[in-house]
Amino acid sequence: MAIQRGGFSTRLGFILAAAGSAVGLGNIWKFPFEVGEGGGAAFVVMYLVFCFVLCFPVMVAEIAIGRKTQRNAVGAFTALGHKKWSIIGYLGLTSGVLILSFYNVVAAWAFGYFIDIVMGNFSVGAEAFGGFVSDWVKVGSYTIIFMVATAYVVSHGIAGGIERAAKILMPTLFVMIIALIFYSLTLPNAMEGLKFYLVPDFSEITGTVVYAALGQAFFSLSLGMGALITYGSYVNRKENIVSSAAQITLMDVGVAVLAGFMIFPFVFSQGIETDGGAGLIFMTLPGVFQSLGPILGVVVGAFFFLLLSFAAFTSTISLLEVPTAYMVDEHEVPRSKATWIVAAIIFLVGIPSLLSAGAVDALTGFIQLPGKESAISFMDFAGLIASDTFLPLGGFMIAVFTAYVWRKENFNAEIAHGDESIKGSWLQTYVDFAISYICPVLLGAIFIVTVLDNFLGIKIINILLG
Ligand code: TRP
Asked: Helix, strand, coil: what percent of the chain each, to 5?
């Protein structure tokens, strides 16, 4: 079975592609609204702790598993001689398909806002946002465009497609965000926004906040579903995995934190509620751009939403790559064919999400869970299942697998392959310890809390906190 799998051409290419996967709507769209709903700085603190303490070791494990086996998220476990554990890969495929199915729709919002602003239309505020997202024909068309563009890149493979796109887009986005922060800090009430964002009020912490922060950490770092097993499988065995993972984590967390600095002064300067949910950035930013005047507003606004679309794009690429690599490796489907089949399936799976933002009432108020105050939409439900529940579960299983099934000796040997100097360093010592104890215990515990809280309405953390 000699399949040509391809690979990243340089270490920088890998890091940028993985950072491109990590940095996306999760940082610029989801993070701010989760912070807003989770009560501000207390959420930020928990998110940061989870990223570094729990997620970083899982990231090292994913990359190591992928690089060692040079296989996709399912095949990697079989290649290590533990076929049963490929269940982790199947869970990952399921999460990935679900996440991409709604992620594409949100990416289409971003792209649609770009087009609108280019046309001189600023959809300012909540009502305009509601009108925009419930127009399913328009959003659906953009969703198709986005899916097709993603599939086009993925069908072209690793170095020529994924790597090349990431190298150009990532740095541009970064510069753009910094510029917007400088502007946002000059606005009235900017300090109120910063206070909400930076001064924690720990009484805001509830069970929902804890698992939302964990789910956000996994989602934002693209962990828990084998995306980094897959990307790791294209990495040269001479690279240092631990330092690559550290760089990817820092870039991702950095962009999320910066996005908060950009958004909250904007939100407060316009007197918008922080718990605006999925619409938060779409409701706030157009007003800011409009205030820049007709010419500058169109230029800056269009550029921002274009870059947001690009950030989403490097993420949709990684999400589509996971099931595609599975089809290529395990079923020997040619890459191009595999890509288009998977993309079509994911588009279909995403139709209920597309219709759940106001177009169809039964999907907009899709389900009333025992743990939630009001009915949530199909899209929110898919997010709850895939990102808040399945990703941490996947992370838990990856940690247990790495420490106790694949075994630490093998894991550590793979980490040190290519760069012996990592042996005995504090980072390696921490990863070793965390993957065996901290990750299994805490991820397992939070998974149980999540399930009880959401699906059974048993609020353990609230009870513990009194
Ligand atoms: N991390 C991306 C974001 O923050 C989304 C994403 C891309 C993702 N690939 C993933 C999430 C794999 C989970 C798993 O926007």
From this structure: 80, 0, 20
Ligand 1: residue of 94, 154, 318, 321 to mutate (most ligand atoms within 8 A of CB) is: 318
User: Mean pLDDT score of the chain, rounded to an integer?
Assistant: 91
Residue 24 alpha carbon, nearest atom of ligand 1: 15
More confident residue, 417 or 176: 417
> What is the architecture, at CATH level 2, of domain 11-465?
Orthogonal Bundle (1.10)
98 lines ligand 1 (CB under 6 A): no
Contacts of residue 327, defined as CB under 8 A and 6 or more positions apart, other chains included, come to 333, 338, 341, 342
314 CA distance to ligand 1 middle (Å): 9
Q: Give tens-digit pLDDT for 282-322.
A: 998 898 889 888 899 999 899 889 889 988 998 999 999 99
C-beta of residue 80 within 8 angstroms of C-beta of residue 406: yes
**Ligand 1 atom closest to the CA of 225, numbered from 1:** 14
Residue type at 176 in one-letter notation: M
- Per domain, the residue ranges of the chain are 11-465
93 CB within 6 A, ligand 1:
no
**Rounded distance between C-alpha atoms, residue 406 and residue 192, angstroms:** 50
Distance CA 369, CA 378 (A): 12
Which parts of 280-407 fold into alpha helices (H)? 280-290, 294-331, 335-355, 361-364, 378-383, 391-400
221 C-alpha to center of ligand 1: Å?
6
